[in-house]
Structure formats: C-alpha cells, structure tokens
Amino acid sequence: MFEMADIHCHMLGGVDDGAKNHTEMYEMMDMAYADGIRHICFTPHFKIYHFKSASSIERYNQAIAISFDAAVEYAREKYPDLMLYLGNEVMYHSEVIESSESNHFKNINGGSYFLVEFQPEISVYDMRNAIRNILRKGYRPVIAHVERYAELYKKPDFVRELREYGALFQVNASSVAKIRFGKTASFIKSLFKRSYVDVIATDAHSTEVYTPIMSEAAKKIARSYGDEVAKKVCLTNPLAIINGIKLF
Ligand SMILES: [Fe+2]
To answer: Quick one: which of 130, 150, 45 has its CA closest to 88?
Structure first.
C-alpha cells in the first residue's frame, strides 16, 4: 500500500467538534500513521456565525496554533516522516468571502486552495454563486464531502458546470468505504466514472466516529477503478493541493 495524504480532518485537540483534547489528538495521529497516512493537513471548522467578535476569532486561532504546535512536537518525537500542515474547513458565508480581513481563516497550507462546506440543504444555484465568489476572490474551491449535497444527485449537468468553473471535489473516505447502496453510493460512482473525484480525505472527528482511516477507501477504489486512480485521489492530488500546484 502506498503512503497517503489527508487534507481534511478535525484532529487538532480541543478546538472544534473533533478531537476533544491533546490525548485524543495523539491517538488519532497514531491511527492515521498506522493506516499509512504520511501527510496531514488539520482543517478545524471555521464558521463565521460562531464568533461574536474579531477577538473571539483571534482566541480561536490562538487555540489552533497551540494545538498545532503540540501536534508538531508529538510527530517530531514519534513520527519524523509525518508531515503536518494547517488549514480550515470554511462554512460558506458571503461575509467570510467579502470581508477584507479574510486572513482570519486559513486556506490549505496557506496556499490558494479553499476547503469549503455548505449547509446541506443549499440549492445548486446558491452553490454556484458561492463557487463564483470564491473564484473571484482568487481562491481555488475544494468542495468538502461533495456527496453530502443531495441536490447535486439530480443535476449531473450542474455538477459538470461546477467543475468547468474550476471547483474541485473531495469525497469522504468513510462514504467510499462504508456506503454500498442507495443514492449516495450511486452519486459517488457516477463521479468516479466521470473522473470527477479529485481527492479522498478522512474528515476524521474522533477515534470512533469518522476515524482517521483512508486505506479501506483506497483499497476499494483500487479494486473498482485501478491502482492509478486510487493513488491519484489518496496521494498525488492531495499533495498537489497542499503544495499549491494546479490540478486542472
Ligand atoms: Fe469536516
């Protein structure tokens, strides 16, 4: 099995609804490493409506920095070949994009890739506007867990349109590994068939639910679509995103 890179997870301890504390963060890092993950971009949630003021954003970012330092220290001692990076998973809100102080959230590894999520019930039209706004700002949107937006299931042309604009699609490892039947499974299959899956990531939140495991999904993709595709979505593409390299 090849090494893998995870660009979407909530492993930093005590900052969002992911790892509760540093102990759980270390356990999750152990699990990720044992699974074959060698690059982790921590992406704590950034939801603008959770903050009451600029200073509460600052406090949140300080907590992230402290937790990230602890993770770096842990990896330095235990896993010298584990590379760590920082970003955010940003809940889309026009205010986040329009604000002149957009440096209060982080793109993936500080580059131009913007990991974005939406409210699950968002209409395709609002999603299209959001994608345009993100691009206009000069960011490259990576739609987190694209399989979560049921509105897209019924509109394959719209999915193509989003890609033509330049949106990248991330699918959760657990959705690939665990969902076998039904509309979500068919949607994911249709994305793979059209080569629309750019990246698989764990979206790990704990050691029990949404775990930091990618290998199961990688193996399943290799079986269905070949080793090359599996390696592309689990290593090459996420690494390109981390390093700010243009994918298409
Ligand atoms: Fe997430």
So the answer is: 45
